[in-house]
User: Fold these one by one.
Assistant:
Number 1:
Amino acid sequence: MKSSLNVPEYVRDALAGVAQRLGFTSNQHSVDYDFRVFENNRSVVSVLYRVTFREEPREATVLCKVPPPDADDTLLALFEREVFVYGKLLPALEQFQRTRQEGTAATPTTAGDREESSVPFAPSCYHAHCDAKKGEGIIILEDVQRRGFSNRHKFEPMDYDHARLAMVQLGRFHATSLALKKHQPELFEQYRYMGDVTGERVLAMEGFEQTMEQAFENAAATLPAGDAARREKLARLRGCFAEELQNISDTALSEPFCVVCHGDYAGDNMMFSYNGGFPSRMVMLDWQLAKYGSPALDFVHTVFLSTDESFRRNHYDNMLQTYHNALLSHLERLGDDSATEWFPLTVLMRLIKLQARQALVLGLLHIPLTVASEEAAIAEGEPGEEDEDSASVRISDTTDAKYQSRMAGLLKDVFRLGFL
């Protein structure tokens, strides 16, 4: 597909290297760029497009991520973090799983058991590089859509089947991090320094404090008028929200259970493949916010920000148990037969209570942004100018109703579970 988007020389060179790695002959294959992925991509952190290599009788497709042309220091820092994850962390976790599997007496004997023991957490990465000083960066990934993976509807709360698989995958990911930390501490040491890339930058942003003040005011308006006690609790949190956000980076509160967290473990950062109509496998995307911290950070992010009140009322305990069981089971597969003793469910519940208020603070921004993004997506799909006025009213009404429902549900559950 032709496009005016300029492809830098360093990107072309990297793609040429990947093509050779995939078995294509130098100067004898074609390279086609499809920028429609980029045009539909709302990310401000990266530009994404699809690249197809062709040499009769075969072809292969990869996805290419680069920083936006006008990337500032913060965006480059985020991109650099994702390059580190794809280039260093994820290969180390996969290699560690294979090594532990080979060295464990109870080595799995079936193909299914072997695959479950060595879990791929993300699409395969063929190349990852970043030079922030030059403003250059590139990540070349497997196009998992070719293997039947797809995104669920990004604006809809997660249902039980998707959320359950997300908890299983998260438990395995955190278990691998914990096991690497325990069995190869020298290798793991470098990951302890994966701090919060955006925390201090966000707090220092002009107008951020005013934005949060308005977010708290909007959230308080969803509480019943006569609920003075809960309004007072929310007001106290409003007075110290900056400290709550800073506490996310205080790993001392959650040691010795800290892991490498995904950092943005939301439904729209997951892709699923299906068997018989049900999600059976998943991979995690967009690792720009990955950091060292409490495992509860990823758990509360998914359960409180990617589901709704009805889901949490019916399935919260199940999600807690599913995650914990997956974590313990994978630790055992990696050779730790005492995980139940040193990481009981009570420890996980304590860690979640430490992080839940921070999830609420993030939710004050996440929910209105999600609703606004959905409004924008609907607006882009409007059929024509003749329907513009009626469509705008419908979108506005839906937006208000969805915000009220989601925010009220989040507050209700945080209070119900004793987190505030």
Note: The longest helix spans residues 345-380.
Number 2:
Amino acid sequence: MSSKDTKQQILDAAESLFIENGFHTTGVRHITELAGVNTAAINYHFGSKEKLLKAVVARRVNPLNRERLDMLDRELASADQEGRMPDVEALIRALVQPMVAHLAKNDAAGRFHLLAARVATDPDKKLKQIFHTLMETVIVRFSDAFQKSMPQVNPQAVSVRMVFCIGSVLHAIHYISETHQNDCLLSEGRYRPDLDQMTEHLIRFLVRGMEGR
């Protein structure tokens, strides 16, 4: 097995176990057994379990963030050409839709949101920092864009709403994943929610929250 293949095997095994059992419950031995490698391979490629987690998160988050920033740049360019403020809904869609698109694949990439939510909300500050570091550019760029779209809103209020927005997205994506794959039980009976419909509900909710309506 080549060095590249070994690294990929470790990342795949770690991601699967972190999603299933959480970071703290998963031991290095569990990862090496599933990946079919020895402990030295993890130390060689990643240095520690924490750095392995960062690599697992980065390989999923970085492509998502590139898609988000591409959509953001297109909206900002369009707004500039048309002489208008950036559209709040377009900005929200840029945040949400790349993640939903991956979720629809129903594979490891689609299930990654479970791990992202765990890392972002973990009491361990070192784990939270991993998520915040990887999301920093997105948070700053989108906060600036939302400020341009709502110049009448205090910048501090925009930042607070942005934090609530990201938290809502993480929770909602988890919920959407569960209900998209399983029946929901309401007073009217069981039904299988439509992914696109739930995404539109989420976007409308976030738009109103960002606008403070």
Note: The beta strands are 184-186, 189-191.
